[in-house]
Amino acid sequence: MAFGTQDDTDEVMNEINMTPLVDVMLVLLIIFIITVPVMKHSVNVDLPQASSQREEVKPETLNLSVDASGNYFINESRVSDTDLPRLLQAEAARQPQPDLHIRGDKAVRYERVAQAMAMAQQAGLRKIGFITEPAR
Question: Is residue 55 part of a domain?
Answer without folding.
Answer: no
